[in-house]
Amino acid sequence: MTELAGNIRGSTRQLVCSPVKRLINRIDPPVIVLLYHRVTTLPSDPELLAVSPANFREQMQYLKDTFPIVRFEEDWSGIANPAVCVTFDDGYADNALEALPILEEVGVPATFFVSTGRIGSRSEFWWHELERIILETESLPPSFTLADDRFGRSWPTGLPGERRAFYQGIVRLMNDVDAGQRTDWLAQLRRWAQTGEGVTDRHRAMTVDELHLLAASSRVTIGAHTVTHTRLSSLSQAVQREEISASKRELEGWLGREISTFSYPFGRRSDYTQESIALCRQAGFSKSAANFPGQAHRWTDPYQIPRNLVRNWPLEIFTGKLRGFWTR
Length: 328
Known about the structure:
The chain is α/β, with parallel strands linked by helices. It is built from ten helices and eleven strands.
């Protein structure tokens, strides 16, 4: 099927489904959950994770002026009108330093799902270290060979296009392995590139003090997001249990309060399993957030709440995208 034909088919499907969605939404007003990662301005953002402070402020003001805004942990079964919920994943420092002041200024509540393993380390998340080594290092050898019994392979790295393909390829591989393998692969890359471990303010996680600052706001709820931000479906049941439960314990130890919500790393349906869902329930979480588009209704599985990813859209694009979220 050509791209054009696919676009036509997609548009037709949306037109056919829209009356049904409108009827469902009248019967049971939905909640649209938005997913953010960062609020900051970056010189390079290959993962498209950052929303500029200016765009974020306009987005939040529009939501505040237009919709009821609910908190993720609340019971949504009694809402009378379609509503919006704002969430963040990962635990970047800019969540506390740049997103929080805007949320408080505009008056919008948000839930921040925090991956605990990097809190206080001042080191980069692994995908940013890959970006720094592969895409930002000026001079690299002409090729890289990954030493791994299962995933080992080689990539050419002499040209800019080859570097981008290498970056995209190894990111996909790292999504499928555990934290120990990622650590080994990053060490291989550092030796190959003759560079050190990344320590930078640009991409770091929060300090414990910044986590306390974030959690102290009446606008903020803190949720768990595993320890090492590893795809749960790639892990054994025992390791999944530790990733899920330890992130809850660590956050509760830092903050002195119960942590009742969770989000799956990466969050697509293939990134977690029925075991993951059961383990979240056993750990005492009341809701878990996924990362596939959709609406939350009374019948939605509370351990698979759909979320709609927000990019660095100016207001006119954001409002159009938001209209589309109601018909998915």
